[in-house]
Amino acid sequence: MFTFFKKKPPQRPSDDQKQDSSMEGLLKKCKLSSDFTSYRYSEECPYYIHYYKTLVDGKVLHDHVLPLIIEGEKGATLFDLQKTVPIDDSEIIKDAEDAQGKLLAGNIGIQCTSNMNEILLIPAITLEKRAVSLPEVEYSVVGPKEAFVESLDANLNLIRKRLPIPELIAEEIKVGRLSKTRVAVLYIKDIADDTNVQTIIQRISDIDYDNVLDSSVIAQIIADNHHSVFPQMIDTERPDRVAGVLTEGKITILVDGSPHALTGPTTLIEFFSAFEDYFLSYPIASVFRLVRLFAVFFSVISTAMYVGVLTYHYEMIPQNLLNPLVASRSGVPFPPIWEAIILELTIELLREAGARLPTKIGQTIGIVGGIVIGTAAVQAGLTSNVLLIIVALAALASFTTPVYQMGNVIRLIRFPFIFSAQLFGLMGIAFCFAYFLGHLLKLSSLGRPYLAPVYPLRMKDLKDSLFRLPIYMQTTRPMQMRTASPVRFETKKHKQKKPDIEE
Q: Which residue has the higher pLDDT, 231 or 42?
């Protein structure tokens, strides 16, 4: 016969413990956790030891702290022990709230039996982090092959390695009532605009949220327009890109625990500029940028044009194209709108399946699934082969966007264009385009125009926007950054061509 016993609920701190702000109350609250260790080495030992074993490096404890405690004299004080500890940044604290933050940050706490209201805190944090690896989201053939990791200190190291100047300032802020996440705001003094710097610092400092685990959370909170689908800060995993935008006068946000950095203020055109463009010759880089912009435009309106023309404006189709188009749709029982929606949703399902499954399986699902489902849909008469080609090219064109965030936006805004084309034809596409254009005209990034330098028009900034001019012509920083030092280098020095050395 089996007897079932009701499990006793875990002990929770009482109201007295919650209100107790003394050192004794802090230790009682910490002892409720199973990974918190608190003990006295022996009855003769004058010290108590407290630490979280999941946060503390055991080697530091056993090699540097315990030998000194065992050899300590009975009448020794915390100040005497602090002088003998061979570890920097150790400190004696009386405030229980400060001691709590230090213990949770990976410090070893030591109390003396003669004075239990003070605690000596010795840094012994253990860091679990992965090694620097290749970029996965912003991979490039040419250029550096390093990407950010989840450690804030390691990410700062990657940036300072590229910008070894004292003017690179990193201001650290703790965000999140529960997570206490370290957030660093980076900028170059005497280049970045003080207004932009203070705007970002103020918005981050005003964040009242309990859990901040990634940079994307901060990007959503400090955005100018919280309801816009367009990203207002660039999310990047490349240290070289961060170093490049810092020299332009922009600001970078790093979050401990996130392998991505935020940069801003930004513009719409920057989302179609890969940082690899700066490692190529300017004619090739300019052509690639124009190809990306054309690909995005084609991806957004191609399916909508198919629906609008076949529904309302079939007289616009050339006679040579009309016969094969009619033949391909002769066995399709659905109107063009349902035909397009079925294929678009199928493409989205394949994308999500490929992204969520393991890498090797995801690639197989994407390739085999696309071929099998596409062929079966045409043979079953659910869609025409012409639309299948258009949707496949539109999906392929959307992959040319260098920044993943903007790629998701392109995937989303295709559907309003398709529905508008079904309701009003080509006029509906024009209305939808006018709506998004008006939205982009009003949108801003940290108070700066989102469509700059096209609107407001700044001719000098066009040298690195839709196309890229040679490096020797990039003499000034973007005007919209309002930098304190707009000149990057003197033009005269580069115009004077020195004679080549004769062999």
A: 231
Per-residue pLDDT at 348: 85
Phi and psi at residue 346, to the nearest 5°: -65, -45
Whether the CB-CB separation of 37 and 108 falls below 8 Å is answered with no
Residue with tokens 């033009």: 491
| 3-state SS, residue 228 | coil
Q: Over 90: is that where the pLDDT of 357 sits?
A: no
Helix, strand, coil share (%) of the chain residues, nearest 5: 50, 15, 40
φ, ψ of residue 37 in degrees (nearest 5): -110, 130
How far is residue 170's CA from residue 436's CA, in Å, rounded to a whole number?
A: 37
Please report, rounded to a whole number, the percentage of residues in the chain having pLDDT higher than 70. Answer: 89
Structure tokens at 64: 């540097």
Q: Where are the domains of the chain?
A: 16-123, 152-266, 286-427
Cα–Cα distances (Å) from 276 to 133, 235, 288, 406, 471, in that order, read: 18, 16, 10, 17, 14
Residue 348: its H or E element: helix 336-356
470: left (phi over 0), alpha (psi -120 to 50) or beta: beta
Q: How far apart are CA 37 and CA 110, in angstroms?
A: 12
493/491 Cα distance (integer angstroms):
6
Q: What span, in angstroms and rounded, lies between the C-alpha atoms of 96 and 100? A: 6
Q: How far, in Å, CA of 471 to CA of 197, rounded?
A: 27
Q: How far apart are CA 84 and CA 471, in angstroms?
A: 57
pLDDT at 186: 94
pLDDT number for residue 263: 94
Q: Mean pLDDT, to the nearest integer, of 475-482?
A: 85
